[in-house]
Design goal:
Order of helices and strands: HEEHEEEEHHEEEEHE
Oligomer: single chain
Shape: elongated
Strand order of the largest sheet: 3-2-1-7-10-9
Helix content: 10-25%
Structural class: alpha+beta
Radius of gyration: 18 Å
Strand content: 35-45%
Number of strands: 11
Number of helices: 5
Largest sheet: 6 strands, mixed
Amino acid sequence: MRTFSSLCVLLALLFTSCAGNELVGVHVSLQNDGSGLVTTRMLMEPQAAGSPEANAQGVTWKGRAGLVCAQGSFQHLRELKLGGGSLHFVADLEGVNTSLRVFVKRDPNAQWVRDLVPEQAQRQAMAKVYDPTGRTKEIGDVLRLEISVPGKVISSGVEPSGRGIEAAHESKRAYLLIPVRAALEKGNDLVWSVSW
């Protein structure tokens, strides 16, 4: 029960700290030697009742929405592959100009996307739980890939471009926003390039 309560608090904090619907995604914190931490944020419908549900009276609960976060370390960025390799990294960390490229599979069955978000109908149902006012029609419809690097980011760009796909940077981090719909379209893989 305590774990579920902690998850609810974390979920509330993340809902307020992420802009718009950028709840789900991957964050990489990279060190000079290529090692680092990776954190994933996945939207899901919890199966177990939490403390508020278990301890309530006079209510019939109708839905749940949850955000599950996981964090792990890697020895070198080139070894990090997510979604069965449908999201992977290539880094040039030698010399004065350091850079990396992230290869992002775009496909109706892209595993990295399926690992982070459920189907659209489920995201729409969860939106009603997340925002009972009804203003939010869908949650988790934008995937946020973010990389923190050891130096100041000089550039962040993505090819090919597409509607809603945005690469940007500030200070020591770069991010790529991809609408779930765009990630699940059949098309050329995205290549996100970051230099610092």
